[in-house]
Amino acid sequence: MTPDARALRIDDYDYSLPDERIARYPLPDRAQAQLLHYREGRIDTHRFAKLPELLPAGTLVIGNQTRVIHARLLFTLPDGRPLEIFCLEPLDPADYARSLGSTEAVEWKCLVGGNRRWKSGRIEARVWVGKLECRLTATRGDRLDNTFRITFSWRADGPLSFGEVLEAAGSIPLPPYLGRPAEAADRDRYQTVFAEQEGSVAAPTAGLHFTPEVMARLREGGSAFRTLTLHVGAGTFKPVTSDTLGDHVMHREYFSVDRALLRTLHDQIAAGRPVVSVGTTSMRCLESLFYFGARLLCGEAAGDSLDQWVASDARFSERDVAPALAALLEHLQQEGRDTFSGYTQLLLTPAVRPRVVDGLITNFHQPRSTLLLLVAAMVGEDWRRIYNHALAHDFRFLSYGDSSLLWRRSAGAE
After folding, report:
1. Same domain, 94 and 26
2. What is the spatial distance between Cα 372 and Cα 374, in angstroms, rounded to a whole number?
3. Which parts of the chain are coiled coil (predicted)?
4. pTM of the predicted structure, to 2 decimals
């Protein structure tokens, strides 16, 4: 009997994670991280460098090309006390590329540390962008739930984009569980080697183990590597505090997929060849594409956003993946668009098997998290065996930790 996603108890996805097992720093060599390989109940241990040998020829590997922005900005209040502004997502213009590329004032949704000390008005910071001195100003606007509308403007002796100012003035927002400030080395190591599109406030950490050499060996072994964009939000660290998922509000994230990748993905699935997602963010985007296409097959508009419970809609369980992706491709052609973009709030749980992804490359996640639920969606109750194995064999956990390659459990395996 298929469980009801809303009734799933978060207590059933808990485990003990000793503090010393959290990796505070990455290994010197990305590809020397341990790799746990799980397939049909069997668990083996390798180095990540061996990944190309573990993939069947003809595998399509899809990573998230998002790039982490320097989202933490430090200002000084008139009374001399520090104040941190954490940039979450653009509001005006409400487009990452346009906002980061803007040379005029922009508005962002932001968290403000110590907001009670900053009631109103403008605050200013002096930064150097290359050889240009820049005066960055932040003006507090209206409250947006637990965040604020902040207007940023800047003055310099030459034209500067907001992305350039942010890169120079801000710092990399490391996950809070690392318990340390960002260091110079994190500017490089908290980015994947294939990061291109700025917009995330957290790295798609499953991709941190890839090197150009590993990617070259993937191609030599007959696999293909493609990318999509999903900008990881701070909500990825949001804990599940309710007893059941029905009371948990899932965060939403912006994604963008070009038509060429959609066509490649459709052809891969239609031919019965495996699709492997690099990370939970890529998987969330890929699974979302199915539901957008399934809407079209049901005679609805594709829309540009998904709610968190869309996977529980019984109408979509009767739809196949390849026709759904074909419908999405036709939709783009009719509209004359080269990309499909929007927001997804999709919550992936063991209540519904993944539809698009056959294999998942991912790190080891926090207990009682939605990311652990996503892992359980892939492997069912074996998630606990996998995590017990990792704990017993000195695997390093969380963002800078070790990796795993998990293949989707067979239908009826549980």
Report:
1. no
2. 5
3. none
4. 0.95
